Amino acid sequence: SAELCLLPALGELLLLLPGPGGPGPAELGLGALPAELRAAVRAVVGDLDGLFTALGLREESFAVGSLSRVIAAELASYASARNRRRTATNKASVVFVDRTLDLAGAVGHHGDNLAEKILSVLPKLPGHKTDVMVNMVELTALQTADETCTIIAPGCLAQPNDPAAKALWESFMNLKQKEAVMEARRHLVEAASRENLLIKMSMGRVTPEQLNSYIQLFRNNLKALENHCGLLQLVLATVQTLKHPQTSKWDNFLAFERLLLQTIGESEMPSVLNQLLPMIKSYNKRTKDDYTCEDFLILLVYMYSVVGEIKSGNELEAAEEEVKKALVKAICDEPEPPPVLRKIT
Known about the structure:
Elements: H1 35-55, E1 57-64, H2 66-77, H3 79-87, E2 90-97, H4 103-107, H5 114-121, H6 163-174, H7 177-194, H8 208-216, H9 222-227, H10 229-243, H11 245-266, H12 269-276, H13 293-307, H14 314-332, H15 339-344
């Protein structure tokens, strides 16, 4: 959008946590990092310089955290960046922040934002990191329940040539979910009335089924389909996201995180872990509403991030041991572990 540019995440740029005898964060310089991490830092500095060159930027860098300081220092002394800063006309402040200082922000589910949910739950568009696949079968005569149907090319979120779709995407990012879904309905109704498609207006809450019934009006009208293809892709992305099982789980996560914040204030970590224990179920005992192993890892990262300093003791060790045992059993029972679990094991 005009205000926000999403770049691919950098999975290989995770700061090493200080271990016994390792360099402390204060004395961390590029030379103290392992070779792979050094190469990753140099690669990201080169990429940032390329991006700033394309934008004609002369940056002033600020850093929060030890790895961020290393990257900012590398960028400051990078030969090509020094030349660029001498000639660039636009000024910018760049703030680097270590992700490890805000893990709770990365794994929390506080956002009431439709764009965030669409980007989180729909499958990635092949070859892209920040766009998703929108199933377009609804708009065709080929009605199939097969989600892996590859005959029909997927839609996506990037619609630079469709002003209505661009405006709708802005509302997905800037409005609360309920308001954004109402905007989706408004745009669809306007598009249908421009094409003289008979639309049954209904007020009240917008449901995915209602949006879908409006989309079906365009199905047999090739001219209308062509005129509003970008808009229809975004509304289909909305419908598929709202119907996605991960979206209802998002609300469960949010409720659990809120409960957790209250509980942690009132009780100690062991009792919170004991509450979590019966919810860890193996693959063959889980229903679609139960948390998966991945979900538990996310919850544990959130818990340990928000609780801060933890008083260690026998009770905590016993509770942690039980959670570890249950998680290891659940991970080992996974018939097809997702990529993150394969990486961990």
